[in-house]
Structure prediction request, 196 residues.
Amino acid sequence: MYENIENSEQIFIFKVWKSNIINKCAHICGRVQVRKGFGVCCVATGIKDRVKDLDIRILNLLIENSKLSYRKIAQRLGVSTATVMSHVNSLEKSGIVRKYSALLDHEKLGYDVSVVIDVRVSKGKLFEVEKRIAGHPNVRAVFDTTGSFDSLILADFRSRHELDSFLKKIQAYDFVERTETRLILNRVKDEHIKIS
Prediction:
């Protein structure tokens, strides 16, 4: 049975003789108390409590190299392969791990022009404009931002001509008031952050 306590915790109460439930509860939250024939498991709903130390260590290994096998992750962390598989499946189901992808060196592939483009959108049509811009193959990220512009775009192009064509295209979109483009001269750091 689940019970909300001040919207901050869920309490899972079960009969002690069900050892598989005790083990599952211990795996989920690491805190099991046994009182008068019943076990009590407290599961906090905050992200810090849902993502345990082992999950964080698994995530950091996947950030370093998403091609690592469950077996290699298990060896590095000193746990069983089944434990790693269970944790990764849980992280995927919860949406913490959204997908796996390769980090490419775009310059080596001929995309020498990398830019940050700020966009100001009028009449509350931000979502529509961002969705349209995000569909362009050269755009790798679109963010809502605070400040004098509404949206920030990261994009890579093979040439200044490609960039120019893209800018003229989006500047002609309905509700795009203004753009400001900054050329990225050097990538000092461009990677995922480690989880702590």
In short: Confidence is low (pLDDT under 50) at residues 1-18, 42-48. Helices lie at 19-29, 47-50, 53-64, 70-77, 81-93, 126-134, 160-171. The CA atoms of residues 13 and 26 lie 12 Å apart. The domain at 51-102 is CATH 1.10.10.10 (Arc Repressor Mutant, subunit A).
